[in-house]
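User: Some background: our group keeps a shared notebook of sequences we're curious about, and every so often someone picks one and asks for a predicted structure to add to the entry. Today it's my turn. The entry only has the sequence so far, pasted here. Could you supply the structure so I can complete it?
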Amino acid sequence: MKIAIYGLGYVGLTAAGCLTKEGHEVVGIDVSERKVAEAAAGISPIKEPGLEELLGEAVGKGLLTCTTSGADRIQDCDMAIVCVGTPSGSDGAHNMSFIAEVSRQIATSVDRKRTTPLTVVYRSTIRPGTIDELIRPIFKATLGGDVGVVELVYNPEFLREAVAIRDYFAPPKIVIGTHDGKSNERMEELNKNISAPVFYTGYREAEFTKFVDNTFHALKVTFANEIGRICLELGISASKVHEIFVADTKLNISPYYLRPGGAFGGSCLPKDVRALQYIAADVGVHAQLVDSLIRSNDTHKHYLFEHVTQRLAPGGSVLMLGLAFKRNSDDLRESPNVDMARKLLQAGYKLAIFDPALEPSHLVGQNLGYIFSHLPGLPDLLVSRDFILERSFDLVIDTSGAAKELPASIGPIVDINTLA
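Assistant: Of course. Here's the predicted structure to add to the notebook entry:
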């Protein structure tokens, strides 16, 4: 394919080098005359291992040309890839001026008589909704009824500086956002030699991917450093603790506990987080991330209550499937489901609870004390399977995954463990 790349920074130049290595013809476009001159001569304006060699080979083979204006170069291109910067504005939001300007340039330059659409691919990190609310309107305003001569795609990059070329050819994943969430022929062609999981989705999910990834990376660094500070103050080897922690790929370094859904609870997590907060404060370490966990979890509990009751007025009948911390357990200590039940009752809903693992007369110790201090009317709330099969409810809150074993006639079901 012939591909125009707008923006010859780290992402754009790496893409140019890697695409030409695969035999594509690339036109690099940038407002910086220096970048254009150096790249056109096969010299990399940035330091990235292996990139200058790729650019030199591309120029030698006639596969890479560069210019400060793409108006007359885009007509015979199959694809345009936008890699311009989206720096932070004074309020923290991305500055979208470069995105808007490049979109306007492409829309103005594209041939309205094209027989096949120009695939315009955005790789810059952009706020969810940018294609629908900024980019598409620019093309529509410029092209009017000819908007079909372009197809818009969002394809975030996952490149780390200093290993960008390796990451380009071996990414952790490929995410492609299209207007209908379906595959795109030219993107399939672009990535045919790359082996990685491919996710086709709508624009907004694809646009949000980089925010989630990068914020989680920041979360990991911050968490590790807070733990490291506590270790140092306690005379503990932080490196040994890290070695032990990352060795657990079943729970610690895994997909577990990362699916948006229910709040955390039970006899371990809340207790140990609070204890770590105390330890950190006791040794004089400010662990703001750890300190925020309980507060954030409490906020999430209330959010879930508002989320599941938003379409049901107080007085409606509600069935909760599961009250214990985990299914097939009778451990109620700090179960977020107990908080949900308490909020429902306080708000005036008619509540019934189905949890076959629970028998109030069998509860002992702290488990017994916790439930009768937080939900003293539990025995009157528990119902049998036969009871719920004979009725329908205004709302069914599934906390345990039990809904799939019951008929849909029991009422509209909300799975609290899956935020959809």
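Suggested note for the entry: The first strand starts at residue 2 and ends at 6. The chain has 15 helices and twelve strands.
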